[in-house]
Amino acid sequence: MKKASELIFIPIPGIGHIVSTVEIAKLLLSRDDNLFITILIMKFPFTADGSDAYIKSLADPSSKTQRISFANLPQEQFQGTGATGFFTFIDSHKSHVKDAVTKLTDSGSETRIAGFVIDMFCTGMIDVANEFGLPSYVFYTSGAADLGLMFHLQAIRDEENKDCTEFKNSDAELVVPSFVNPLPAARVLPGVVFDKEACNFFLNFAKRYRETKGLLVNTFLELESHALQSLSSDGKIPPVYPVGPILNVKSNDNQVSSEKSKQKSDILKWLDDQPPLSVVFLCFGSMGCFGEDQVKEIAHGLEKAGFRFLWSLRQPPTGPTSKIGFPSDYADYSTILPEGFLDRTAEIGKVIGWAPQVAILAHPAVGGFVSHCGWNSTLESIWYGVPIATWPFYAEQQVNAFELVKELKLAVEIDIGYRKDSGVIVSRQDIEKGIKQVMEQDSEIRTRVKEMSQMSQKALADDGSSFSSLGRFIDQIQSS
What we know:
This is Glycosyltransferase. By secondary structure, the protein is α/β, with parallel strands linked by helices. It contains 18 helices and 17 strands.
C-alpha cells in the first residue's frame, strides 16, 4: 500500500494568494487519496482581508478540504515600505516555518513530508526545506511568459552584469525567449525592476527558483504555448508544470460578510434586468483606486461611450493600510464624481464599491471588462469568455497587458503602460475608445476569447493538458 504523503504549502499573506493555494490543494487532493496538505498562514499586522472568514468557511467535514490543515504563524511586524519592506516581511517568518514543520515531524505521524510548495515570493523558505532535507517546489501564481521574463532578467544581470534599473528611461526593446514580440522595456517591465534594492530582491527570486525541483504555473498549454515551450527547452530551468487555470469560480457567500452578501444580491438583481452582453464592467483589483481627476475622466469616458456599465469605484487608502495599499469604499460617490453624473446615468449605470467579480463576470449581461490585468482576473475573464480592455496598475500587470494585447490578441488596449502613482491621467477619449472596442459584438477578439474560454475548461477536464501536467507533478512528489 502506498504510504501517505504530506505537502507543506506556504503562500504569502493576502486573500488572493491563499484562495489560489487552497484551490490547487483541492485539485491535488482530488487526484490522490494518500495526500495530505498543511498550509502555513502569514498575516499582515495592520489589516483584515477576509482570510480568517475564508478559512473558517472551509471547515466542512464532507468536502475535499478535510485533508487540508491550516496553521497560523506568529505575527511579525512590517518594517520599511514598498516592495523591499514586503519581501523582508515574508523572510522574517523563516524561523516560524521551521518551528511549525518541526512540530509536524515530531508529532509521531506515519505520514511522510514530501516537500514544500512555496509561493513565488517565499524563496527564503527553500533554506528551511533544505534544513529538513526536503525538496522545494514553487507555485507561480502568474503566467509562464512573465516567469520567462524573470529568468531572462536574472540571467542578464548575473551572466552579463547588466544593471536592469537602466531600462527605466531607455528606448530598449527587449528580446525575451518567452515572448514572440520584443518588449518595450521602459513601458512594460515591472516597476520593481527600476528600483535597485527591490530589483535585486526580485531577481534573486528567479535565481532561487533554479534550485527547486519544479515550478507549478497557473496557466495552461493552449493559452501560453510559446512561453511554455521556451521554458521547457531551457536546460537551466527546473521542470515546469502548467496546472491552471487555478480559480475559485464556485463563489461562496459564507466567505463574505452579510453586508457584502446583500450587496452581491443587489448587483446581480440589477444585472438580471440588463440585456445579454450589454454591460461593461470596470474593476481594478484589491488595490485599484484613482485620484479625483482620473475618476472624472473615467466618468466622462463612460458617458461618451454610451454603454450600460457597472463600475467598482474605491478610494485611495489612508493610515497604516497605505503601506500595502488596500482601498476602501467611498461613503458618498457623489463627492468625487462629476456633478450630475449619477443622475444622468441612473438608467444605464451602477457605481459600486466592493465587487463580487467572479459572479459578475459569469453573468450573461456582462460583455466587456475594463481590468487592471492581474493574472487571476485575466484567467477569470478568459474562463467566462469576457474580453478585456487593459488598464494595468503595478507588479507584473503591464507585462500581462502586453501579452494579452500584442502576443495573444485576447484584449484591447486602453493603456498597457499605465503605472499607479505615475501622475499620468488617461484621457476620456482613450477610455471611450477602449470601451467601444471591447464591447464590439462581432469582433475577432471576442471570438478568440470565447474559443480560449472553451480551451481553459477542457485543460482541467480528464486528460486535458493541465490535468495531465498535474498528474506528472503528483508522480514526481510520490517518487521523490
